[in-house]
Design goal:
Elements lengths: L16 E14 L2 E8 L2 E7 L5 H7 L7 E10 L14 E12 L16 H6 L1 H4 L3 H23 L3 E2 L16 E4 L7 E4 L4 H9 L4 E9 L11 E10 L3 H20 L8 E4 H8 L13 E2 L1 H4 L5 H8 L3 E7 L7 H14 L5 E6 L1 E3 L8 H10 L7 E7 L1 H18 L10 E5 L4 E4 L4 E4 L12 H6 L15 E6 L2 E8 L4 H10 L4 H14 L7 E7 H9 L29 H6 L9
Parallel strand pairs: 3-5, 6-9, 11-17
Antiparallel strand pairs: 1-2, 1-4, 2-3, 4-5, 7-8, 9-10, 10-22, 12-13, 13-16, 14-15, 14-16, 17-20, 18-19, 20-21, 21-22
Helix pairs in contact: 4-6, 4-16, 10-12, 14-15
């Protein structure tokens, strides 16, 4: 139906006859001559309908409207002098139409497709087939295709085998809730959609396949936000006979290849290394945005000599006083500071204290601090004239979390975050366990198949299970890769011996019976010559989101769900009829 794509026609085609198809992107009438910008996935080209060339098709062109699907035959010519459009690749030429066929018309659009749109996400996803026509969104999927291709090419060239693992598997709840699928042939039994292929990829290593990868869908029934979806895609990798450094080296090399081949960005410097404790201490987060400084400072040791009751009570109750230097913002008004305080309270802090460095230190709380204490604070933050010091006093985890978010906000306000800059880092030496406040128990920070650090192995086997964290903190052979404030991947060296895995379950208060019920097939496999192994899973959606400059992974997923886990296009999830439920031996008892 066409000889050329719209976006490929250029000056070398001048004088030739072409047939093109696509959507009418724009329609305009200039002094009796009709211009239509015709668009397909490759780009757009200007088509001219002149009554001097053909009065009938000129008349027919007046009936074309946005998003009509048309076919045009015509001749390529150079645009008249002064009308060249240098902002598009086809801007030097135009196609003079000699034949027009309307392949399909289009109803009035619910929102504009050309350029940016202010349509709500719900409206865009209700008409996702229209939203996907927008060039900026289509470019996201071209980027995603290139990235997936680059990942596959790299892994193929380094001896990895692409192997599929089951989408219907056993429910082994750890972390997020499983999506369950009822079995018709086994009444009362359920499959689960995989939160990750973790157990299966470990079994592939036991099977001697040594190097596995898969670009795979994963499913987690959890609360959503901008960088989460109930179904998401990860580049899943596992290797036998490796240590942590080898997995990290392969991953780093692969990421550099993907970036150069996908968006033409060369990452030359080695990825930074930060321990978990160092990252949290300096940036408040284990996924810091390293494109800017504004490092946090713990000043509990300094302010304990003050008479400010809020700070002193926090320290006495085991909390910390921590802050950052918002450089150059001492000119903030009281309203600016009140608004900032509300923001921080929204993050979970009780409040925000501040000091302005203006010759002397100006603050409503300055009177509670001796002069030498104020001087020590200024020195700790390396503050200069015109700087603004911001403090949070709270439990350590709350203070760090709130200040991490405040740091990101101040990075934006101070224009410290530049587009096109990519700062990678490895976060290592994570705690092996963390306390789950909701369930009042310890759980694995990554997952229960993560091996402890070799230096901690003796302690791992000797400690009292009741003192897992506070008495004898243990570190994991785990590693996360972060980019511009996002965790884009995480992995670990796995436990490959059954006695070690049994001990891990004991420390997590998982009984042998429960472990056998949930993970029995893995525990059995570990007794049949399981090799040392480790791997990583990279979030393809997040990586593409960052490369494409999008603000949400929903913009790089073809048919995303809303924050309520609903698909506005297909109206999923939806009720099913009684017959289907009966076949599955399911009776609904919905609690409103």
């Amino acid at each position: 139906m066409r000889t050329h794509s719209c976006g490929e026609i250029n000056a070398k085609h001048t004088g030739t006859s072409v047939t093109i198809v696509g959507w009418a992107n724009k329609w305009r009438d200039h002094g009796g001559v009709v211009f239509i910008d015709l668009r397909d996935r490759s780009g757009l080209v200007q088509v001219v309908f002149s009554p001097e060339v053909d009065a009938d098709i000129h008349k027919a062109a007046h009936k074309i409207r946005n998003e009509f699907v048309i076919q045009v035959e015509g001749e390529v010519r150079n645009r008249p002098e002064g009308t060249v459009n240098s902002s598009i690749p086809t801007g030097e030429i135009e196609v003079v139409a000699k034949k027009l066929s309307v392949l399909n018309d289009c109803r009035p659009l619910p929102f504009m497709i050309d350029g940016e749109t202010d349509a709500s996400e719900t409206l865009r996803y209700r008409y996702r087939y229209l939203d996907l026509r927008r060039p900026v969104i289509q470019q996201n999927f071209i980027t995603r295709h290139k990235a997936s291709k680059a990942f596959r090419e790299y892994l193929d060239s380094h001896g990895f085998l692409e192997i599929e693992t089951p989408a219907l598997t056993k429910s082994t709840p750890e972390g997020a809730r499983d999506y369950l699928v009822p079995s018709r042939t086994n009444p009362g039994h359920f499959f689960a959609l995989p939160q990750s292929p973790q157990i299966f990829k470990q079994i592939l290593m036991v099977s001697g396949l040594e190097r596995y990868y898969q670009i795979v869908k994963c499913f987690r029934d959890e609360d959503l936000r901008a960088d989460r979806q109930p179904e998401f895609t990860q580049v899943d990798i596992e290797m036998s006979f490796v240590k942590r450094e080898e997995v990290m080296a392969v991953t780093e090399d692969m990421i550099k290849k993907v970036f150069i081949e996908t968006i033409g960005v060369e990452i030359t410097e080695p990825f930074r290394r930060l321990t978990y404790n160092d990252a949290v201490e300096r940036f408040g987060s284990d996924k810091p945005d390293l494109r800017f400084g504004l490092e946090l400072k713990n000043v509990s040791d300094i302010v304990k000599d003050s008479s400010f009751k809020v700070f002193l009570d926090t320290i006495e109750n085991g909390g910390i006083i921590k802050g950052l230097n918002a450089k150059g913002l001492a000119g903030y008004s009281r309203k600016d500071l009140d608004d900032l305080t509300k923001d921080v309270q929204g993050f979970g802090a009780k409040g925000l204290a501040w000091m302005k460095v203006k010759g002397a230190v100006e603050s409503p709380i300055a009177k509670f601090f001796p002069e030498e204490t104020l001087k020590a604070l200024v020195e700790r933050f390396e503050a200069k004239e015109g700087d603004l010091l911001l403090f949070v006093a709270d439990k350590e985890d709350i203070a760090n979390d709130c200040l991490a978010k405040l740091r990101n906000e101040m990075g934006k306000r101070l224009d410290l975050i530049k587009d096109g800059v990519y700062r990678f880092a490895w976060i290592t030496d994570f705690p092996l366990f963390e306390w789950n406040e909701d369930e009042k128990r310890y759980e694995a920070m990554h997952h229960p198949f993560t091996s402890p650090m070799e230096e901690d192995m003796e302690t791992f086997f000797s400690i009292d299970p009741a003192g897992v964290i506070h008495e004898s903190p243990l570190r994991a052979q785990a590693y996360d890769i972060v980019l511009n404030g996002y965790e884009i991947g995480g992995g670990s060296i796995r436990i490959h011996k059954k006695d070690m895995q049994d001990r891990m379950f004991q420390l997590l208060n998982i009984s042998p019976e429960e472990a056998d019920t949930k993970f029995g097939f893995l525990l059995e496999a570990l007794q049949y010559g399981a090799p040392p192994h480790g791997g990583i899973a990279l979030g393809l959606d997040r990586i593409v989101m960052i490369m494409a400059g999008a603000h949400s992974i929903r913009d790089v997923i073809a048919f995303p769900k809303t924050q309520k886990a609903v698909c506005p296009l297909s109206s999923a999830p939806s009720p099913v009829d009684e017959k289907q439920l009966k076949e599955l031996n399911i009776k609904l008892d919905i609690v409103e």
